Amino acid sequence: MDSVELREAMSRFATGVIVISVGGENIHGMTANAFSSVSLDPPTVLCSVSHTAVMHQAITAGGRFGISVLDAEQEQLARFFADKKRPLGPEQFSGLDWEPGPLTQAPLLRGALAWLECELEESHDSGDHSIFIGRVVRAATSRASSALLFFNGKFQQIGVDTD
Prior knowledge:
It is built from three helices and twelve strands; from the N terminus they run αβββββαβαββββββ. It is α+β, with helices and mostly antiparallel strands. The strands form three sheets. Strands 3-2-6-9-10-5-4 form a seven-stranded antiparallel beta sheet, sandwiched between helices. It has a three-stranded antiparallel beta sheet with strand order 1-11-12, with no helix packed on it.
């Protein structure tokens, strides 16, 4: 199987866009779309992170993480947290509108569609990534109704009123 063919095929699968974040000593954020609900009972979600990503070590060391589900208007934040040249540590959140999650201290981005705070339950290696399974300890939603998607290698929007 050619990884280029797989990337092309998977680009046809529309996904939501999130920013995963970790607070505390290893404060960090990362854009991702490899994210899914796993179970309602117990409440769990999963995210897949490359072994070489800074986020991999941050989640492993911190044991907690936050998820901000991005609104259609937050494409710039998605691009920022996907940029490997951005500053790391606390500086990457400087000037951004966020608040620490009350249970995890993970930075949660204001204006998002939803926020989750998770405690790391399990980690499974698969190829060059780890699948992190988090128990959701807090969830909240906003009144926003338009979502940022990733489809065909580009950011897209859904639910945006074009009137």
